[in-house]
């Protein structure tokens, strides 16, 4: 059976992000963009990462230019923007397609697991991956990272 742990993403700084390295941890996977109305969610994503990384939570950003061309820069531009404006220290993948036939295989797997209705509709769509690599939740862009709904799902997955 395929799980999220079977996938690898290129890292924004070079190298790879192997999801199998997060086995036993909970991953909040978020497709991001620098020029979106939801971009300030980086602040809460970074806060979650700092508060809970020692408790087993990994926040993983996946920059994408799929929605509204709101991530037009290079990987270096994205990284600089995130560090300068939001002091982001959580892992970021290199820019990826997250929708359609050309989507990264992880996002195609998610669509297969949850159905087409669960694919990202905009930037800052969130998926929770449990310690076993199975999907444990999904939320649209408008649900804030520190919402009670997401916090409870993280707590339940960490328990």
Molecular structure report:
The strands form two sheets. A four-stranded mixed β-sheet has the order 4-3-5-6, sandwiched between helices. A two-stranded antiparallel sheet has the order 1-2. The chain is globular. The longest helix is centred in the N-terminal third of the chain and has 12 residues, at 41-52. The chain has 159 residues and is α+β, with helices and mostly antiparallel strands. It contains four helices and six strands. The chain has one domain: Glutaredoxin (3-Layer(aba) Sandwich), CATH 3.40.30. Helices cover 28% and strands 18% of the residues.
CATH superfamily: Glutaredoxin
Query: Helical residue percent?
Result: 25-40%
| Rg (CA only) | 14 Å
CATH class: Alpha Beta
**CATH fold naming:** Glutaredoxin
Strand order of the largest sheet: 4-3-5-6
What is the SS-derived class? Answer: alpha+beta
Strand fraction = 15-25%
Structure summary, number of beta strands: 6
Mean pLDDT: 96
Number of domains as seen in the coordinates = 1
Major sheet characteristics? 4 strands, mixed
- Shape descriptor: globular
Mind sketching the topology for me?
Blueprint (H helix, E strand, L loop, with lengths): L7 E3 L5 E3 L7 E7 L8 H12 L4 E7 L11 H12 L18 H10 L11 E4 L5 E5 L8 H11 L1
In short:
Helices cover 28% and strands 18% of the residues.
Question: What are the salient characteristics of this protein?
Answer:
159 residues; alpha+beta; Glutaredoxin; four-stranded mixed beta sheet; two-stranded antiparallel ribbon; 4 helices; 6 strands; 18% strand; globular
């Amino acid at each position: 059976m395929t799980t999220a742990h079977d996938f690898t993403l290129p890292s924004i700084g070079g190298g790879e992000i192997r999801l199998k390295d997060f086995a036993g941890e909970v991953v909040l996977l978020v497709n991001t963009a620098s020029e979106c109305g939801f971009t300030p969610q980086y602040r809460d994503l970074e806060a979650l990462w700092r508060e809970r990384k020692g408790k087993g939570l990994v926040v993983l950003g996946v920059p994408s230019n799929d929605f509204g061309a709101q991530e037009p820069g290079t990987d270096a531009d994205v990284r600089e923007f995130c560090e300068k404006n939001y002091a982001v220290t959580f892992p970021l993948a290199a820019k990826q397609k997250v929708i359609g036939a050309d989507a990264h295989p992880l996002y195609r797997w998610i669509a297969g697991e949850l159905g087409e209705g669960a694919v990202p509709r905009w930037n800052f769509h969130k998926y929770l991956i449990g310690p076993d690599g199975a999907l444990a939740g999904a939320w649209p862009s408008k649900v804030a990272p520190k919402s009670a709904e997401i916090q409870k799902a993280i707590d339940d997955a960490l328990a």
